[in-house]
Amino acid sequence: MSYKILPLADFDSVLGNTSTEVSSVALGGKVLDCSDDFFAPASDLLEVPPAPSLKGQFGPNGSLFSGWESRRHNPDHDWTIIKLGPPAALLKGFDIDTAWFSGNEAPAASVDGIYSPDAIPTKDSAWTSLLPQVPLGPSSRHLFTIPTTTSSFTHLRLNMYPDGGIARFRAYGIVAPTWASAQAWDRTDMGEVDLAHAFNGGRLVFESDKHYGTGANLLLPGRGKDMGDGWETKRSRTPNHLDFVVIKLGSPGTINEVNIDTLHFKGNFPSGVEIHAINSEEDLPPLTLEGWTKLLDRSKVGPHAEHFFKIEAGKERVFTHVRMTIYPDGGVKRLRVFGNRVGAESSSSSSSKSAPGLSAVLPTSISSLLSKSTSSETTTPSPKPATIATEPFTAASFAPYGTVIQAYPSPSDAPPSVAVTTANAGSAFKFHRLSLPESSYPKGSGEVTAISCFRATPPEGFGKEVKGGEREWEVRMFERHCFTTQSFIPMGKTDGDLPKGGEGMLVIVALNGADDKPDPSTIKAFLASPSQGLTYNIGVWR
Questions:
Q1: What is the b/e burial string over 223-257, where b = at least 16 CB atoms within 10 angstroms of the residue's CB?
Q2: Which pLDDT value is given to residue 371?
Q3: Cα dist. 486→333, 397, 437, 482 in Å?
Q4: Where are the domains of the chain?
Q5: 43: helix, coil or strand?
Q6: In Å, how far are 46, 89, 146, 149, 184 from 130, measured between CA atoms?
Q7: Contact by Cβ (8 Å): 116, 125
Q8: CB-hemisphere CA count at 13 Å for 119?
Q9: Residue 240: its pLDDT value, please?
Q10: Which ranges of the chain have pLDDT less than 50?
Q11: Interatomic CA distance for residues 461 and 459, integer angstroms
Q12: Tell me, which fold does domain 358-408+435-536 have in CATH?
């Protein structure tokens, strides 16, 4: 395998902005095994921050170093096996950093790779040489590029000759998405994929500023752990200042919705956000807005929350890149770009086709079928129904219609308005006042607040399968409570309660219109998980 030494000054243009660090723990990279790490653990190799100096600090085995350090006098060589974070990747280059190892650095290293998605490889597996044995020096970064591999790899083996220390190891490549199967990072229940997700091949190609956190963090899996794994720019007092990132999507596609997540950014979130998109054959399209299509006008976002925006302008055209602009500066945790792939594979192997969605089919003229009473019903379906697809059920998205009742995975996942304290001698968290019962009955009416229990049977035709494996349910009735809120908390289900592949409650809501009937422009559908309950606001149709 041929290779080239890459000057540090060329890192961004050759590797940093053209590939993804596929070995990083931020993407799920993991050290599985090593021959020896007596002085410093091999797991340090994949840490995100640069290696710090631990000079003058000692542990039971001697001087402390952040990195991988083996014992002296190995007669052969030491090795470590690394699982890449994404499902698979095409490799482009490596960064082997010996920071702070001086006199005890590894004199040389090499890199091998293997594709083994179903089994953990061993040191004796059938490895392919990716980088031949190359010399290393003390306390410095060593950058190497290789011709982009034509086949994918899931694991790497880093070898050092004969022994010594390496502080950080970073492998760069192009993620090879597994479009043919449903993935947790996509919205398979809605028939959509996250076109920007790092595991789907999305990658950062430009960022205007990365003072506190790089823009590549926007595409990481999950919602992260703190502000350090988001994108945050430095403060600016310059009038009309803005910052932006450009993301190359993992596949060309149409765009239905974006999710801008400001989790953990509680006092440093942006004042406003805009989204543009373009279809370009260039890896990095023009940085001016000429040729770009505006998908989202400048919109306000708040602290520590997910913000979902429907993208009507993105459904009829195919895009390859997305640009997110923040005003004037600040921090964003994640950017999700949900849509449908467009390309040769999308009709047969795209994960957007691999799992059923659930949607509500609504009569075209809702207002003519409903009266002012609490419950209205029709037995004559409209010949041309409108279809409302379900969308993520979160406290922010459901706020106009009511509140979400759930026990969040951790206190940091709760909305900023929810107070969280420990309970039961520290063995539990209490999420306070998620929902407050309200009523507006006339004084002296005799009405009271009560708790009732339903045993519901799905109506006939619920979740019938339609083309493409999606499922629909025709809505024949809306109702509302004019004087009280109303809460629903799931208490379990039987085997026959839900269609195959379905989970939770299908929630269809609308605000009251000027004619005292549901306002068709406000109708939304949500799919709540079995662990989520809800409270409808007074007067909300559902």
A1: bbeebebbbbbeeeeeeeebbbbbbbbbbbbbbbb
A2: 36
A3: 34, 18, 8, 10
A4: 4-175, 188-353, 358-408+435-536
A5: helix
A6: 19, 13, 8, 9, 31
A7: yes
A8: 6
A9: 93
A10: 344-357, 364-384, 494-502
A11: 6
A12: Jelly Rolls (2.60.120)
